[in-house]
Each structure stands twice: as structure tokens, then as C-alpha cells.
């Protein structure tokens, strides 16, 4: 099944070097996102060094850095929409953890292909506890406009819950795919697809379950 590939590649494009031409307050969405991308970039550089003996450790550090800024539970809830509201709490937790491992099964195999692309921060817009940061991803000779949507968590951290590239939203794409499968088949078919894809895949290990439980459903 290729229905997750495009949106996950959008996430991969966020893992790039940051243009430091502008500075923002330490508590701003822009600044916090910038610091996360810098942290992830440094880890990716270490992962691409095939001579390092601690690649597994670096992968786990990468997982930690991603979930520090990526609200897995919110992305899962928005992606499944009203179909998640009818599930039990146990089913919501199961879906969120499985959804996280499914995303990881696409982006983690790409981590050794990082080649120091760049992100230029363009502007930030805040509206209460919501914010969007517009950036340009420089990839080869292309400038790809991207919008990162964040919300303010209770701990004061701005958490990413959607990314759009060239007008295509990660959450919107996923929701359309999930809705299509549910209408043609069932919710259980989505679970089966994700279970088949992640069978034997360890990914971020217990960090996925921890991220799902810590984020909760908002």
C-alpha cells in the first residue's frame, strides 16, 4: 500500500539544516521549531556516518527528538476524524500507537539518506494557542513552500500537528485515505493494513506508546 508514502515524505523534508538569517523569541513557535530541526539535523548527520558503532542509539535519540515536537495523538485524531470518536478509549490508544509505528515504518528507513538540505524560515503567524510557520525547503534547484501548523501544549511547548507542502496537507491527505478505506471496507481494514506493515518492525520501540499516552486526546 502506497497511500502513506507522500505525506510521510513531507515530514522527512522537515529534517533539514536551518537558515539562521532571522531570530525569534525563545518561546515562539518559530524558535522552538527551529531548535528541533537543528537537533534532528545533527542526529541525522551522525546516522549517515556508517562507521559509527552506535547507530541504534542515534535512532532512538532521533525518535526522542521527533516526539518532543510532533503531537502523535493529535495527528492520529485529526487524521481519523469522527471515526475515532466512536471508538473506546482502549481502541483510541491502540490506534494511536499503531498509527505512530506505521508512520515510523516509512520515515525511519530514510534516515541514512540525509544530504544536508536546507529550510528557510519565512514567517510566523499566531492566533491564541494555534500558530503556523511558513518555510521554504531547498531541495536541489527547487524551492518548495511548506506550512507547519502547531498548537501550544500545557507545558509551554509548541507541538506540530500538521505539515503542508505545495498546498497538500499531511492530515488532510491521511483523512481522505482513511475515509476512503472505511467507506469501501471498514475501520478494521485500516488496522489490518497497519498491522501487516508493522509486523516485526520495532521502530522507536516504547517511545511511540509513550508519546501516544503522554499527548492524550484533545
Describe the model:
By secondary structure, the protein is an alpha+beta fold. It has one domain: Tgt2/MlaC (Nuclear Transport Factor 2, Chain: A, Roll). 51% of the residues lie in helices and 20% in strands. A six-stranded mixed sheet has the order 1-2-3-4-5-6. Strand 3 (130-139) and strand 4 (142-152) form a beta hairpin. The two termini are 29 Å apart.
Helix and strand layout, with pairings?
Blueprint: H1 5-12, E1 17-18, H2 29-47, H3 55-69, H4 72-80, H5 82-85, H6 89-107, E2 118-127, E3 130-139, E4 142-152, E5 158-165, E6 168-169, H7 170-184, H8 187-198, H9 206-215
Parallel strand pairs: 1-2
Antiparallel strand pairs: 2-3, 3-4, 4-5, 5-6
Please report the total strand number as a whole number. Answer: 6
Task: Round the Cα radius of gyration to an integer and report it.
Answer: 17 Å
CATH architecture: Roll
Main CATH class: Alpha Beta
SSE pattern, N- to C-terminal: HEHHHHHEEEEEHHH
Give the oligomeric state of the chains in this entry, treating copies of one chain as homo and distinct chains as hetero.
single chain
What distance lies between the first and last C-alpha atoms, to the nearest angstrom? 29 Å
The CATH topology corresponds to Nuclear Transport Factor 2, Chain: A
Strand order of the largest sheet: 1-2-3-4-5-6
Helical fraction:
40-55%
- List segments where confidence is low: pLDDT < 50 over at least 5 consecutive residues: 1-22
Mean pLDDT: 80
Global geometry: globular
- Give the biggest beta sheet: 6 strands, mixed
Structural class: alpha+beta
Put simply, the count of helices is: 9
Amino acid at each position: 500500500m502506497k497511500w502513506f508514502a507522500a505525506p510521510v515524505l513531507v515530514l522527512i523534508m522537515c529534517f533539514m539544516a536551518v537558515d539562521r538569517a532571522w531570530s525569534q523569541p525563545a518561546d515562539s513557535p518559530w524558535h522552538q521549531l527551529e531548535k528541533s530541526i537543528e537537533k534532528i539535523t545533527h542526529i541525522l548527520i551522525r546516522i549517515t556516518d556508517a562507521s559509527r558503532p552506535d547507530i541504534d542509539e542515534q535512532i532512538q535519540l532521533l525518535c526522542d527528538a521527533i516526539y518532543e515536537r510532533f503531537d502523535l495523538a493529535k495527528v492520529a485524531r485529526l487524521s481519523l476524524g469522527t471515526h475515532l470518536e466512536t471508538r473506546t478509549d482502549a481502541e483510541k490508544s491502540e490506534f494511536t500507537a499503531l498509527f505512530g509505528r506505521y508512520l515510523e515504518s516509512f520515515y525511519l528507513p530514510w534516515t541514512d539518506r540525509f544530504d544536508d538540505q536546507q529550510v528557510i524560515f519565512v514567517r510566523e503567524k499566531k492566533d491564541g494557542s494555534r500558530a503556523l510557520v511558513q518555510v521554504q525547503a531547498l531541495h536541489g534547484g527547487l524551492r518548495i513552500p511548506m506550512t507547519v501548523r502547531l498548537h501550544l501544549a500545557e507545558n509551554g511547548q509548541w507541538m506540530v500537528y500538521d505539515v503542508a507542502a505545495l498546498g497538500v496537507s499531511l492530515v488532510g491527505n491521511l483523512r481522505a485515505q482513511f475515509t476512503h478505506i472505511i467507506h469501501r471496507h471498514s475501520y478494521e481494514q485500516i488496522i489490518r493494513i497497519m498491522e501487516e506493515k508493522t509486523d516485526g518492525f520495532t521502530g522507536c520501540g516504547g517511545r511511540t506508546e509513550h508519546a501516544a499516552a503522554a499527548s492524550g486526546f484533545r
